[in-house]
Design a protein that fits this description.
142 residues, mainly alpha, 2 helices, PELPK1_2
Length: 142
């Protein structure tokens, strides 16, 4: 019983999962390398086969239904005529009064462009020089 528990725990351990992944990844990369090295051979084409023709089915005459005598025939029922609806005259729509034309709006006066004062150019900032850092020399190690 204890052996089954330890075996199942070891099979599911992350270490074994990593091992299986590494084994599979190696074979995939080798297979991909082989595909790059060896060009694929040309696939031979199959010859075109003629399409088989289906044989024509024999034509049979349609059988006629035998007439059965002795059955009573149904009398023809006339369709009732619907009464005609009286024509209703369409009422005339009242005409809309014509609207007066809107007066034209006055044109907007042109506004002169505002001349902004020119700003003086800023002075160029000189970079401060930083002294170079020199590595201290340490005595040699024995």
């Amino acid at each position: 019983m204890a052996l089954k528990k330890s075996l199942s725990a070891s099979l599911l351990s992350p270490f074994l999962i990593l091992c299986f992944t590494a084994l599979l990844a190696g074979t995939v990369s080798v297979g991909a390398r082989r595909l790059l090295e060896n060009p694929t051979p040309e696939i031979t084409k199959f010859p075109e086969l003629p399409k088989p023709e289906m044989p024509k089915l024999p034509e049979f005459s349609k059988p006629e239904l035998p007439k059965i005598s002795g059955l009573p025939t149904l009398p023809e029922i006339q369709k009732p005529e619907l009464p005609k609806m009286p024509e209703i005259p369409m009422p005339e729509l009242p005409k809309m009064p014509e609207l007066p034309k809107m007066p034209e709006l006055p044109k907007m006066p042109e506004i002169p462009m505002f001349d902004a004062p020119k700003l003086p150019k800023p002075e160029e900032i000189q970079e401060t020089k930083v002294p170079a850092f020199t590595m201290p020399k340490f005595p040699g190690t024995p």
